Amino acid sequence: MIPRDIIAAAHVPGGEDLMLFRHDHDFIIMSGREELMGTRMRHSEEQLAIETLNRLAVAAPRLLIGGYGMGFTLRAALAGMGERGRVTVAELVPEIVEWARGPMAELTAGCLDDPRLELKIGDVAEVIAAAAGTYDAILLDVDNGPDGLVRAENDRLYTPAGLQAARRALRPGGLLAIWSAAPDAGFTRRLKKARFAVEEATVFARPNRKGPRHTIWFAR
Where do the domains of the chain lie, and which CATH numbers do they carry? Predict the structure, then answer.
């Protein structure tokens, strides 16, 4: 049995420490005993970008991605947005970017050097709050769903005030897309109360339609 080897750790401001593991040829990021993401289950993170772009049908979209993670969503966005698209990634933990350029550089595949990318080290909630009619879509994958598993302060993204901030940051007809490890009927109701038209999609973690099923809300 091939063991998991810890190769790096990082502290999340106001939250739990993150640990980067290598397991044979795969990488895993964990918070305590919770597996947050891994290279074997990337499909739903890719679909977060692919399905958002499909629903936008904008020739030169401007996207904001909350959380770099392992870059699955970013790489899918860059692949599908065309040469005139632009994407901003807000990543709270600088070590995540160091891992992407270091032990996971082959996985990163140069996406952090793409000229269409603006990388901001900081809280995506602050980026959203500072924007006004800026983005065609905001894609959030900063936790395992609309609750602060990794960092309690992330909860503010999903409050009525946080959802109104997202509305203000979006262009007319824009989309707020939120990834979750599980459905949450209460959050669906909260989105509707915030005057979003809501579509809830179930997406497999793996492209072979096996493994866990994840949820993505597309709120227009």
Answer: 40-219 (3.40.50.150)
Name the region of 170 (left: φ>0; alpha: ψ -120 to 50; beta: rest): beta
Q: Which of 214, 206, 205 is nearest to 178 (CA)?
A: 214
Query: How far does Cα 217 stand from its chain's mean position?
Result: 12
pLDDT digits (tens, 9 = 90+) for 156-210: 899 999 999 999 999 999 999 999 989 999 999 999 999 999 999 999 888 877 7
Res. 29 pLDDT band, cuts 50 70 90: very high
Burial 161-190 (b: 16+ CB within 10 A, else e): ebbebbbebbbeebbbbbbbbeebeebbeb
* Pairing of the two strands 135-140 and 170-180: parallel
Q: Would the pTM of this model clear 0.70, i.e. be above it? A: yes
123 is catalytic: no
Cα 146 from Cα 182, distance rounded (Å)? 10
- Assigned token pair, 89: 């990634």
For the chain, the straight-line distance linking the first and the last C-alpha, in angstroms and rounded, comes to 47
Q: Residue 24: its pLDDT value, please?
A: 82
Catalytic residue among 17, 24, 26, 141: 141
41-98 pLDDT, tens digit each = 889 999 999 999 999 988 899 999 999 999 999 999 999 999 999 999 999 999 999 9
